[in-house]
Amino acid sequence: MELFLFENIVHLSILVLLVTLALYLKLLDNTYIVLMYLSCLTPFVFNGVLISPEYMPDQFNYLDSLMQFREGIVEQDTSSTVYYSSLFLSMVPVPFVSNVIAIGFINKLMFFLLVIFLVRKFQIPNAVGFFLILYPDMVMYTSLALRDTLIFINMVLGFCFIYKRMYLLGILVLSFLLLIKFQNFLIMLFLVIGYSVFLKQGDRVKLSSLFSFWVISVILFMLFASFVLDDINFYRRAMYFEDGGDPSGYRDLGGVVDIFHEGTSSAVRFMFSPYIWNATNAFQLVQATSNILIFLYLIVFTRKAYKYDKFLVLFWVSFIVFAFTLYGLVVSNDGTLSRYRFPFIALYVIAVGLGVRDSERNKQSSII
Asked: Quick check: 104 and 48 in contact, CB under 8 A?
């Protein structure tokens, strides 16, 4: 117990030192500093106080794999996603890794560095930066011993580099997703292609092109749905039983109409799961309430952004609906939905925030 406390106090000290250094070098505003100081404690809170580590047993897979890497054992009997995620996490210069809380501190350290980088390099608006630090799912999953922080960082950095027209670097960063979350790479590739094609056109052309793109996509999907239906059902079935679902509650998708009907409800479920009326414990009740509040925030945020750049918002809303529908079709577990959801919501806020900021700057420049 004493060794456990000593090791994690050292990890806590590393986070505090990083935030103090950011304060000393004036890398961040004081509000960021205060929020980060408070966030330093969350790896303790979410693995022992609010949640038992056994509530998310996947954490121990990453712990075992990471410890083996630290011991020089390269050949491991684990999934490729756990293997490569643990390999990367093992390279983060944190001295002790003997418990899941230690990996939580590693993830929190990487998250802090990401926020500092986004503020200094990309000048994200303060409202966006504060959202990232305060977003409940972000607070939780960057405090746990899971790969989701790595996935989020790669998605955000990949997009931000492409946004700044550093295409090669952006694709290189996103390619790491091939090793740790293949489906997110495909979704991000779809985003990059659409972003590169549509956002270089005039406003009227943009809107007509986006509308045409979605119409053509729907038609093509209807034509080829029968060819991908088996694959969708395969992953849907695998995810359902992997998450411990009741066999009597599972149903394969029957066809195109079924996919569209299920897809609509799945996108809603992906946003709000767990539903507040299905909450079975205090933690799920907090999650459900948080989802509603975040949705209300997104409505206000989106309405304000729409006044500055209609097409930008329509493009990103289309993307988020696409991602939510796709994942909602194959994932049914509430906890898994929450883990898969937060990177997309955070990316949406970052991307729209950056786009609106630049739209404002361009309008001011044209007036001047």
From this structure: no
For residue 214, which amino acid is it? W
Tell me the one-letter amino acid at 161.
Answer: F
- Is the separation of the CB atoms in 152 and 342 below 8 Å? yes
- DSSP, res 275: P
- pTM for the whole thing? 0.90
From CA 144, how far away is CA 216, in angstroms rounded?
A: 41
Q: Are 86 and 75 in contact (CB under 8 A)?
A: no
Enumerate the domain spans of the chain.
2-146, 199-367
- Alpha-carbon gap, residue 70 to 96, rounded angstroms: 10
CA 294/CA 281 separation, integer angstroms: 20
pLDDT per residue rounded down to tens, the chain (368 residues): 666 788 889 999 999 999 999 999 999 999 999 999 999 999 999 987 778 888 888 999 999 999 999 998 888 888 899 999 999 999 998 888 989 999 999 999 999 999 999 999 999 999 999 999 999 999 999 999 999 999 999 999 999 999 998 999 999 999 999 999 998 998 999 888 877 776 655 555 556 666 666 777 667 666 666 666 777 777 777 766 666 566 666 777 766 667 777 777 888 888 998 888 888 888 888 889 999 999 999 999 999 999 888 888 988 998 898 888 888 877 777 778 888 999 999 999 999 999 998 877 766 544 44
